[in-house]
Fold this sequence. Notes:
This protein is an alpha/beta fold. The chain has five domains: 4-74 and 691-718, no CATH class; 79-196 and 654-683, von Willebrand factor, type A domain (Rossmann fold), CATH 3.40.50.410; 202-302, Immunoglobulin-like (Sandwich); 306-541, Rossmann fold, CATH 3.40.50; 545-645, Sandwich (Immunoglobulin-like). It is built from 18 helices and 38 strands. Helix 1 packs antiparallel against helix 2, helix 2 (43-65) packs antiparallel against helix 18 and helix 4 packs parallel to helix 17 (673-679). The two termini are 49 Å apart. 33% of the residues are buried.
Amino acid sequence: MFGLESISINLLSKTVLVNSLVLVLLILFSVYLYRKTNPPISKWMRILLGFLRIVAIVALFTSLFEPLVSYSQRFERQPKVSILLDESNSMDKVEAERTRKARRDSLLSSDSFAFLKDNSELKSYYFAESISDEKQELNREATSVGNALDNIETKELTEKPDFRILFTDGNSNTGKTSYAVAEISSTPVYTIDISMSTEHVDFGIDKVDFNPVMFAGEQSTISLNLKWSNAPSESVPIQLIDSGKVVAQSTLQVRQSDGLSTVKLDYTPTSPGQKILKVSIPQIGDEENISNNAESFSVKVLKSKLSVLILSESPDYEIGFIKRFLLSEEKYDIDLRILGNNSGNLKGSIPGRQAELNAFDLVILHDLSTDKLGGYEDLLNSFMAEKGGSVWYLMGELFSKSNINDKMKKLLPFYSSSPAAITYTQHHLEPVEKNIFHPALRIAESQSSIRTIWADLPPFETIVIADVTNPNAQILATASGGRLTNQKLPVLGFLRHGPGKLFATASNSFWKLGFVNLGFGESDIYYKRYLDGVISWLTVNDDLEPIRIYPEKDIFSRGENVLFKGVALDLGYRPIPDVSGVIEIENESGDSYQADLLLVSEDTYEASFKNINPGRYSYTGTFSKDSQKLKESTGSIIVNKFSLEEYDTSGNPEELKQIAALTNGKYYRFNQFSDFIENLNLVKIDETVFTEIKLWNKFWLLLIFIGALSAEWLLRKMNQLI
């Protein structure tokens, strides 16, 4: 009856027997109650009152029994079909005196499509960069078949169609890769290629993947995604060029006219520095568009090992612990020179020529008197200001007793106004709040932890009283405790000299941070973090700062997503957690946009702008943590007047064939549409729907219960029943 099958009622209550017995007893009691009344009332009134009482009892026990009504219903339905229509600008391309859109619309008005409409439940969507029910909402400047397939999967998650039909030219130039989305789709996709076969040859570089940071002498892999159409079968050479010289090459054997491929080139840079590399493909046959046959990109090549020079008049445990740490790391070459007496085979001298000094990346000056450095100030200044090297000055007894000349004062972040013996007093290091995340201080992850750990570490016992601070210096930490309670004497600080910097420490015996903890059976992790942070920061050039915000490229096409990236590491190359970022861009007309930098990996952030008008934009990117600004980057980008769609309007049948194959669908050309409809299985589908109805939690049961009792009470009152 009505297609209903397998009707059943199940009582879910665990006390069905007891409930049944009580129900029968209450019904019998209701009958007995109204068998006779005092005062006597009419028979029909007694029957009505008994009925109302029984209705209320049944309503109550219906809830107590927890009945569940189940049934199934079989019916036939037409196949459900989703239509995806490409509305991007490439569909306006004229081929054989007809646009692709007009060719598609002719298919949609054909008898074959009318037959499909009559024998299926159709739902249409439009797509370009994304998908929408309304074509007016689309950005036609770009196409993403991958985004369209991904969006439709989400939209139809709860009610999937039997299959989908994709009308497009296959020209996808942004968004998700269609192959990746098609691989996980459970719905067959039939692709209808609207483009006509073109005879022109095109062979181009679609994408270049590379590591922007490389190391001299170490091999790095550069990956190229290549795309071609109507190409002849031949061997295509791919070259990597550095300063006009071919440094790596490979050969791709083309065996089909249209296709995609990935080629990897292994490159080993020989020297450090900024490199402009270019990947290049020669013109293939009568190829008309050769603008995509080459692409240049920039990489930073660092030394595989950094050279560290240590100069000391009187080595002590501080130098011993620093040297041990550097030797434990494979990335440092160490040259230790003792300038004082009794130096044995470690006796050395300060480099007297600029070239000799510039061979090092970091110079550590351990408690050298300024007299010893007299005459070398200009060399040190050039080492920092021109070469970009760094100096770490560990101030101690000899420095404290020195007369500091004017040249040296200009190099130091802080110093003593007059010679004096070093001061013996126990004190702790107190980070300066605005610099608390500097790598020299960041031995923990949060502000409170950093402050607490520095306060709890073993106290320092000696300090150089540096009562003069260079106005351009950055003070990282001051001394607290002991006899220094009311003074903010600098302990850690640095002064920039061009791309280089001089870092100074006024307290002594940092080595005890590790030694004392190990003596008590604890870890020396905080001492290692301190050294790792300081030395890594000192040996990193500013043009490769670990906290940086930058656009994916300098020039974007109209309609292309304008992508910004950010990296949030401390200068010791450790990820900084809980960082927030924002990008603001503004063009010359005053149009402005804003987007958040969102975390996409452990230390990498991205922000994306869509549908940006063409023009030149200035941008400001900011990273913050705990309401403190970590980094602000500024620059400019250009959005070209031509769009991604205008750059390449060719069809892509290979992509459409792949989508169909991966989803168990099939690929058809536009002139095969009638054959496609004839081969399509549009037989009605038998479907069974299972339904369960819970009766115990219905509001109307409560209304019946209350209504029946209320009516019974009212009638009893009217008839003066007790």
